[in-house]
Please model this.
Amino acid sequence: MVEPSNPYTGFIKSITVSVDENVLASVRRLAAERGSTVNALVRDYLTNLAAHESRADRARARLRELSSQSQGRLGRKTWTRDDLHDRGAAPST
Model:
């Protein structure tokens, strides 16, 4: 049997998910309120999750690329932690 094709992802695969019965009942109600199905809600969630991760991966790769091309360099540390928090200063009266 050939699985239906999806123009965005290729072939659609079926999965089995275990979920608490109370969660499933809530999601069924939510899906009905939205005129949808549990299957559609799960599929949309997973699609959005994958797209978000893909965007995040591209953003991290771009940041690494820009960082390697940068001419900026870090100098030598000339401060201490106490300097940053004024811990070396005498208390004012």
Summary: The helical segments are 21-33, 38-69, 81-84. Residues 39 and 66 are 41 Å apart (CA to CA). The chain is about 55% helix and 5% strand. The radius of gyration is 26 Å.
